[in-house]
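Structure request: N-acetyltransferase domain-containing protein, Rhodococcus opacus.
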Amino acid sequence: MLGGGELADMFSCAATPPPDWEPVFALEGRQMIWAGTTPVDISEAEAGVVDLGADSGPAMRDLVARTRPGPFWPRTHELGCHLGIRENGRLVAMAGERLRPPGWTEISAVCTAPEARGRGHSALLIRALAARIIGRGERPFLHVAETNTGAIALYERLGFRTRTQVTFRGFRTP
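Returned structure:
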């Protein structure tokens, strides 16, 4: 499944990786789950929210490289719906779906370009994704680094609560 030299993510996993996997990072964080009511119905089109398809992959990877929200591999955008906000044709904010255990959907890759911060883009995208997830009868959840206090405060304002502490671990495969 993983080729040589690729990065494998493990978090809060009791399993020990194979001995020839090289540890790359360990980071404390938390898993947060939706504990609020159904998000306010917003008009995504009026707010400038757009669906990001496969053709947006390069722009998504560029934004991730500039903002570093967490793991986002070349095909991550294929795991679920990704929404974005463009300004002057350039992707400046996005959020998407990744893990989908039964009854749940993870919101991930929440990021806003430095020049577009402070305008409520992340909150809008999270609310739009949460509305879609809840509309499917599922509950949203997300993961966040413990050091990202700004994101934690935003997620709490939007109705997310900490479910558990996690440790994110990355390993390089031989």
